[in-house]
Amino acid sequence: AQLVESGGDWVQPGGSLTLSCASSESLFTSPFMGWYRQAPGKEREEVATISLSGMIKYAAFAKGRFTISRDGVKRTVSLQMNNLQTDDTAVYYCHNRDDWGQGTQVTVSS
After folding, report:
1. Cα 85 to Cα 62, 66, 100, 102, 107, distances in angstroms
2. pLDDT for the residue 63
3. Secondary structure of residue 44 in the 3-state scheme
4. DSSP string spanning 55-105?
5. Which of 13, 15, 34, 79 is deepest in the core (most CB within 10 A)?
6. Residues 6+ apart with CB under 8 A from 105
């Protein structure tokens, strides 16, 4: 599937953003959909995933601040991010079992 992310932007600390990932194929051809991020000089890390059954997992840093959701009809997966901090600055990627999107840049700074 082709995955296309959008919604990345610059935001001040404490701000919010919603990222969206549009898939060219049904979301349910993969056992999961997820968001990952890579900050400069760091390895890519998992942010949140949602399984076929709807089971959701969050990284510790995302719990309580980020919310992953999906719309099977629109074939989109979203990541609502609240109370963003400078450490959240990264390129955010959408991923399923086989494919990665090109990423969308999130910059948190004052």
Report:
1. 11, 12, 25, 23, 9
2. 98
3. coil
4. -EEE-TTTTTTEEEEEETTTTEEEEEE-S--GGG-EEEEEE-SS-B---EE
5. 79
6. 8, 91, 92
Q: pLDDT tens per residue, the chain (110 residues)?
A: 999 999 999 999 999 999 999 999 988 888 999 999 999 999 999 999 999 999 999 999 999 999 999 999 999 999 999 999 999 999 999 999 999 999 999 999 99
Q: Which residues contact 74 (CB under 8 A, 6 or more apart)?
A: 22
Q: Are strands 104-108 and 10-11 parallel, antiparallel or unpaired?
A: parallel
Q: What is the pLDDT of residue 46?
A: 98
Euclidean distance between CA atoms 18 and 61, whole angstroms? 17
* 3-class SS shares of the chain: helix, strand, coil, % to 5: 5, 50, 45
Place of tokens 């932007």: 9
Q: Write out the two tokens for 19.
A: 């990222």
